[in-house]
Design goal:
Order of helices and strands: EHEEEHEEEEEHEHEHEHEEEEEEEH
Number of strands: 19
Distance between the termini: 41 Å
Bound molecules: flavin-adenine dinucleotide, NADP nicotinamide-adenine-dinucleotide phosphate
Shape: elongated
Number of helices: 7
Largest sheet: 7 strands, mixed
Structural class: alpha/beta
Length: 319
């Protein structure tokens, strides 16, 4: 049976941004409700080793880190709800959001922390080899390919930055692009072309990610020249798909200002959107840094921004 739930703060998303917002809001006595969505814990739950989240000398596991964040949020009073928002009405306060469960959430403030997902090529072999040599995050996984051969797929800023980043670990980096020119900024292209450890394969598509061994690991890429149709194979240990990201804002576009790619727009230096009482944090509003620690930092900012918004409103009401 459908029900109505009222809350001072509703947090859409249970990744590092949502859970950090929850910890701060709960400690401020706001009793936040965290909607976990289809991926409780967010993107880090689909990776293994995390070596760059501050505070841990040993390598930690992404799913474990997110379990700990959730436990901490619950410990200080946040409520986790396994629901996915499928409709929103932000036209007036309190905001009304409807979950797949049928529950209507009526919220004084809303923190949008729905994250973003890497785009993938969509090949069966790609999903099969994820975590076995195929990744979408060089900053996260590049370290594991120290001294090995790696490839980056894509031709935008992200692909070029990932290729350049990977030269910190590898002396054999191949950028594979489907056209004969890059769309990355010129300054990045200049750095790429000047780099002695990066070569570029133009007009090339991936037909398959090929693995072998037990446990299976990536060994090569089956390639095709899109102009001549000629096929070839490239030996690699790691492949990074960098063909763009997609913010998880399908349900929000048209209700909150977003840029042309769907990222939620916030005021510079804050998490405030142009709708009073609606805040955004993490990858859903950030297409540059996309790290767990930056998402967590923005989650903290969103909770503080929301708390101040409510405090100011309470003060005005009693003045
Ligand atoms: P996300 O983690 O994407 O979480 C979004 C949340 O929103 C999810 O819980 C989802 O279920 C929920 N949601 C979405 N839509 C709805 C909806 N409609 N209603 C309710 N809930 C919804 N970063 C690092 O710092 N170090 C690493 O080593 C690292 N490794 C990575 C490895 C992989 C394979 C990937 C994919 C990413 C990695 N990252 C790493 C990046 C990091 O995971 C992200 O930057 C971070 O998770 C972003 O946090 P977030 O809270 O903004 O969003
Ligand atoms: P992007 O600019 O959209 O580039 C995606 C690249 O992937 C393009 O080269 C595209 O090829 C290729 N691609 C897309 N789908 C593909 C497919 N199915 N098969 C093969 N190739 C495919 O994405 P992005 O590089 O992630 O950048 C996204 C946004 O963030 C941009 O606005 C970018 O400027 C910004 N960004 C900025 C910085 C920075 O300022 N330092 C860093 C990273 C990102 P085509 O070129 O043929 O379309």
């Amino acid at each position: 049976m459908s029900q109505t739930v009222n809350t001072r703060m509703l947090i859409m998303g249970s990744g590092p941004a949502g859970l950090s917002a929850a910890i701060y809001a709960a400690r401020a006595g706001l009793k936040p409700i965290v909607l976990q969505g289809l991926q409780p814990g967010g993107q880090l739950t689909i990776t293994t080793d995390v070596e760059n989240y501050p505070g841990f000398r040993e390598v930690i596991q992404g799913p474990w880190l997110m379990e700990e964040m959730q436990a901490q949020a619950e410990h200080v009073g946040a409520e986790m709800v396994w629901d996915l928002i499928s409709a929103v009405d932000l036209s007036e306060r309190p905001f009304k959001l409807t979950g797949d469960s049928g529950t209507l959430y009526v919220a004084d403030t809303l923190v949008i922390a729905t994250g973003a997902q890497a785009k993938w090529l969509g090949l069966d072999s790609e999903s099969h080899m994820q975590g076995k040599g195929v990744s979408a995050c060089a900053t996260c996984d590049g370290f594991f390919y120290r001294g090995k051969k790696v490839a980056v797929i894509g031709g935008g800023n992200t692909a070029v930055e990932e290729a350049l980043y990977l030269t910190n670990h590898s002396q054999d980096v191949t950028l594979i692009h489907r056209r004969d020119s890059l769309r990355a900024e010129k300054i990045l292209q200049d750095r790429l072309f000047a780099h002695p450890h990066i070569k570029v394969l133009w007009n090339t598509a991936i037909d398959a990610f090929v693995g072998s061994g037990s446990p299976e690991v990536l060994t090569s890429l089956a390639l095709r020249n899109v102009q001549t149709g000629e096929t070839s194979s490239l030996e690699v240990d790691g492949a990074f798909v960098a063909i763009g990201h997609k913010p998880a804002t399908e349900v929000l576009v048209g209700h909150v200002p977003t840029d042309s790619e769907g990222y939620v727009l916030v005021e510079t230096g804050s998490t405030r959107t142009s709708i009073p009482g609606v805040f955004a944090a993490g990858d859903v509003t950030d297409k540059v840094y996309r790290q767990a620690v930056t998402a967590a930092g923005m989650g903290c900012m969103a909770a503080l921004d929301a708390e101040r918004f409510l405090a100011h409103e309470d003060f005005a009401a009693h003045a």
